[in-house]
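Sequence of Iron-only hydrogenase system regulator (Ruminiclostridium sufflavum DSM 19573).
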Amino acid sequence: MACYNVMSVLTNNRVENVNEMQQVLTESGCIIKTRLGIHDAGKDFCSNEGLIVLHLIGSDYEISSLEKKLNEIPGIIAKNSQLCSD
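Predicted 3D structure, token representation.
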């Protein structure tokens, strides 16, 4: 049975918390297999809200620790989901 850990990270203030969030993600870089960032952007507009989707590998402790650290940053909501095949 294969299991996948997918964490969604929503930030409602990208400009103010980007440095702290990036530091936490860098510290956990060895358990981040894939990272996808999504935000509204255009020629005259760049949203201050964003969504990051992480495909994680590593122990349950490492993943829950990352989730906890991200949730301690004001304006960030992080939730991990584990999806397993039968």
